[in-house]
Amino acid sequence: MKYNVLTLSVMLLASASVSLAQNPKSTFTVVRSDQWGAQNFNPFSPASQHLLPTNSAIYETLFFVNSIDGKVTPVLGTKYTWSKDNKTLTVTTRGGVKWNDGQTFDATDAAFTFNYLKQYPALDTTGLWKSGLTSVTAPNASTVVFNFNAANTPVFVYIANTPIVPQHVWKDVKDPATFTNAKPVATGPFVFDSYSQQALRVLKNPNYWMKSQPYIDAVVWVSTSSNDAALLKLLSGDVDYGYVGISDPKGFAAKGPNNAYWWPTNNINFLYFNTVKAPFNDAAFRRAVAQAIDTKQVASKAYISAVPAANAASIFPAQQSTWLPASLKAQAPTFNVAAADKALTAAGYKKNAQGVRLGKDGQPLPTYKILVGAGWTDFITMAQVVGDNLKKVGINTSIDQQAWGSYSGGLQTGTYDMGISWGWGNGSNPYYTFNAAFSPDLSAPVGKSAPSNLSRYTNPTITAALKSFSTTSDPAAQKKAMSAIIATVLKETPWVPLTDRTQFSLFNTSRFTGFPSAQNPYNDASPDDTAGARLMYLNVKPK
Amino acid sequence: MPYLLRKVVILVFTLWVAATLNFVLPRLVPGDPVSVMLAKYQGRLDPSAVDALKIAYGLNDLGSPVSQYFSYLGRLLHGDFGRSISLFPTPVTDVIGQALPYTLGLVGITTILSFVIGTALGLYSGWRRGQTGADALTPVSLFLSSMPYFWFALVMLYVFAFQLKWFPLSGALDPFPGAAFTAGWWSSLLRHAALPAFTILVTSVGGWLITMRNNVVSVASEDYLAFARAKGLTERRILSRYVLRNALLPSFTSFGMALGFVVGGSILTEIVFSYPGLGFYLYQAVVGLDYPLMQAIFFIIALAVLLANFAVDLINVLLDPRVREGRA
């Protein structure tokens, strides 16, 4: 009896998906400004190696942490709590969820996923098992327990963002790093339909655990080879969404009533000082240089006023109300050429008769190189403006353009003078920015590669505050630690925040409503292949 | 016979040099694939991914450069180009296999077409010197061949695909063209190839035209033509049997080379029209320091050019009696 019901439902399912395949009623189209590779749905591969729908439409994570304001949305996990000593994280998993092959999802699948990362370190791209995690267990079908040997609350974001895979499929996979997972078994709102070099399609999962969503029947990705080609497709109305870093989003929006964009700030472009080289090892010199740079001019020239100047305390706009007290806001350096000039002289760097700045030894300062990526017009423009600003206080600079490999190599091995780059860590609160930038664990001696502490700056106050932030989940204690970090960074100025760095979501709203926006920021405008995009695919409705 | 043997030996030797340079040059670029990948994600990939990625790509235990070189040569002889790093874990041969048909189709056919059209027009222009049509061809083709290709391609794309909507905006096929090699599939393929092919044709025809015209002009003053006319041969016979064949020979060698380079794809075309050919993958491989893919594509280009050259040498033996008898 049971067998017949099962066959019947399988047949109905098959016929439903066949009819959908032939004619999905409402298709949401996404354009991509690069070509994708082979048919790889392995959720553990780094982003560009698995296909775009893998982690955004097919697989799901435990939670979604909005990287702009830190809000946590439950997905496969419904609740999470830290123990009093912050060494144990308990997550409650959702009931009533099925894998798309019909089997039931429960906490053992979640525990299996995390232990799988331990078994195969090549998959652990967020370094979970190196951040103090000692064990992951599932004491019952709806609870997962994570045990740490040291408190480390910021690691929650990485746990929340891990895609959950079914134990009954992956326990038999021998080489997960090369496994292409052509028929993904997952819990997500869509299932794989078709793959070709020019288009990918996923269809609505008829057994999805959310009963009334998604409102659309299919999502299709089309590929192009450049930002311009993707932009043309958006302008002509062929597609509904594109994550395209164009230079003039305001112009795009002005071209038609259905063109919209949402570019929230989620990172900052910094001018890094290589603090192991004189005179950048002198905090007074760095502070004076920061005062000489007009960040408003930098931003307006580099991004045609589409992106604003960065906050001088390195805090993203959406996070300022929580983490930046007014007293610290007032301590940030302001643009003042005369004051910078005076400060440099007072610090021991006088100007000679020709207006050239001299070092402490009386010799003219050499021309410093500002390292940028070759052909990156925005960074080159920023370096030009910074160079002009610094010339006014007698410091000469030149622009050093390098291709990807030498650019990142130069920054990481500490052979640069000054360099322009994004924050090499960023997240839903400033801890991620400051930890990546100033943690002694992420630095390295000159000549060796520092993972993200590019300026090689460390300070005992910052190190202690980072530790106390990460070992607590009490908001008040975290705020105190963060204020200590911000105050020290403002005083020591190991970098100069130049401009905001945003996501690049562009929309064509002619066929659908329900897009995320500044008024409705339910996701963080993240790209179409990330876990944040899942919320967009769930919430867009045909007009 | 010694001529052919010499050519074969040179071919094999040049291939070996190409393979060695292929190995050495990419590794002279500073940086390594994993740090480039980290930089490219611009903060979205955690720095702790480096160790994991190095293990995944097999970059953590490589051995000395010399041993790497010999294992590279060994694998090359077996046709094993390894797995691409930027498109891991796809084998490199799969990546090339996906892109090569489009490149050969678009660039190969347009190269042949532009050679045929350019040579025919060049013959006409050189033979009928003095007539307005023939004389006008020279400045027109100079203008066409000195136009910046990407500018011309962008203008064509904007006018014909975006404004007039006569042709598609991007890609090689419609998103869902139906089963391969059906009528609908062919129509989709041709519609997408029309604009890229047109732009390549227009900008490359000029070069062949001028070369052929110069050859024709220099042949036209040869003594044997005067002799042929004195002997009473018709103009048409002189043109087709003597002028054309003699003028064509120098162009033929560069045509062979051009056919060899077809395999490298046309990066500008592929970026402007989003055509999924080898040029785009080569560009991505170079920027991303994807050694296996870079090496494979460079090697294939070198191989194709050398083979094309070799084929042209063989055909020269057939076509040119002077070479056959060793008096070239």
Give an overview of the whole structure.
The complex is a heterodimer of chains A (543) and B (328). Chain A is built from 18 helices and 20 strands. Chain A is of the alpha+beta class. In chain A, strands 8-9-10-1-11-18-12 form a seven-stranded mixed β-sheet. Chain A has a five-stranded mixed β-sheet with strand order 15-14-16-13-17. A four-stranded antiparallel β-sheet of chain A has the order 4-5-7-6, covered by helices on one side. In chain A, a hairpin with a 5-residue loop joins strand 4 and strand 5 (88-93). The two termini of chain B are 15 Å apart. Chain B is mostly helical and 328 residues long. Classes of the chains: A alpha+beta (543), B mainly alpha (328). Chains A and B meet through strand 10, helix 6 and helix 14 of A and helix 2, helix 3, helix 5, helix 7 and helix 11 of B.
Task: Produce the secondary structure layout.
The complex is a heterodimer of chains A (543) and B (328).
Chain A: H1 2-22, E1 27-32, H2 53-58, E2 63-65, E3 72-74, E4 77-82, E5 88-93, H3 107-119, E6 133-140, E7 143-148, H4 156-160, H5 167-170, E8 190-195, E9 199-204, E10 218-223, H6 227-235, E11 241-243, H7 249-254, E12 259-262, E13 265-273, H8 283-292, H9 295-303, H10 317-323, H11 326-331, H12 337-346, E14 368-373, H13 377-391, E15 397-402, H14 404-413, E16 418-422, H15 430-438, H16 460-470, H17 475-492, E17 495-502, E18 505-508, E19 512-513, H18 531-539, E20 541-542
Parallel strand pairs in A: 1-10, 1-11, 14-15, 14-16
Antiparallel strand pairs in A: 2-3, 4-5, 5-7, 6-7, 8-9, 9-10, 11-18, 12-18, 13-16, 13-17, 19-20
Helix pairs in contact in A: 8-12, 9-13, 15-16, 16-17
Chain B: H1 2-28, H2 33-40, H3 49-57, H4 65-77, H5 92-127, H6 132-146, H7 149-163, H8 183-220, H9 223-230, H10 235-261, H11 267-272, H12 278-287, H13 291-319, H14 321-324
Helix pairs in contact in B: 1-13, 5-6, 5-8, 5-10, 5-13, 6-8, 7-8, 8-10, 10-13, 12-13
